[in-house]
Amino acid sequence: MLRKFFHHHTGKADDKCNKLCCTKIDGFSVTFGKNDVFHDVNIHIHCGELTALIGPNGAGKSTLLKAILGEIDHQGNLYYFDAKGKHTGNPVIGYVPQYLNFDLSTPTSVLDLFRVSLSNRPAWFQSKAKERESVLHTLKKVKAEHLIDRRLGALSGGELQRVLLALALNPLPDLLLLDEPVSGVDQNGLEIFYEIVSELRKSHDLAIILISHDFNLVAKHADRVVLLDKTVVCNGVPKEVFRDARTHKIFGMLVNHGERGE
Ligand SMILES: Nc1ncnc2c1ncn2[C@@H]1O[C@H](COP(=O)(O)OP(=O)(O)OP(=O)(O)O)[C@@H](O)[C@H]1O
After folding, report:
1. pTM
2. 9: Cα separation from own chain's centroid
3. Assembly ipTM
4. Angle between helical axes of 157-168 and 187-203 (0-180°, round to 10)
5. Which atom of ligand 1 is least distant from the CA of 182?
6. φ, ψ (nearest 5 deg) of residue 189
7. Does the pLDDT of residue 225 top 80, yes or no?
8. In contact, 135 and 163? CB cutoff 8 Å
9. How far is CA 47 from CA 18, 51, 199, 225, in A?
10. Ligand 1 centre from 111 Cα, in Å?
11. Would you list the domain boundaries of the chain?
């Protein structure tokens, strides 16, 4: 079957990605039994760009991230093109889930969490002091060095999210998938999270997909917005998507330059 890919920058049919590196989500579909969650999803994700994924409840946003991760059965392919535009196989993917279930009374600290997650890496055979230094270095990227000895259960929702983000940066991924927490993080925590993510995109030239529910923060920080509802309904820069009649129809209210009028 011949399928045309539409590059979301130019709208032109385009098989390659024109920026330095790119992940192509190609013809993704997921069904659960008879439930068609989404079909024929085609998106190009470029490095150095923050792509916000929006859509109504149950639109399949989290499911799409899990399909990209290869955690659930799906149709379609994932292609990664390196800086030279060559197909280099699967991208290294970092993932921050919407929430983490754990026993709040656990004595596990942030440092312990890093130790457990990274212990199977050969490069991790190093002195305790060096290990601590490496973890601090990663935590610094998310402004969380001060949390290194904190118990996981004593972290606020926003702090935990930043620690998980730091874990997802180790090793530095080609594609970073973030599922914005819908509860447990206050507005201030959410703003800090977006600022850090936005900064990381520039400093590490990261390709990021962020599931977002806060349209103001999307309008402020995202480079691209993809509106998902059974398939990709709308794809463009934030202003375009928030002005689009299809966006207004789906959310059934005023969405103006990122103002969510629910
Ligand atoms: N494991 C599963 N088995 C069956 N159905 C599922 C499963 N996971 C998700 N679904 C269904 O798939 C649809 C999409 O769910 P998903 O969580 O991806 O939506 P979402 O866009 O992330 O929603 P929200 O914004 O509410 O988090 C929903 O109808 C959901 O009930």
Report:
1. 0.86
2. 19
3. 0.96
4. 20
5. 27
6. -60, -40
7. yes
8. no
9. 11, 10, 13, 15
10. 33
11. 101-171
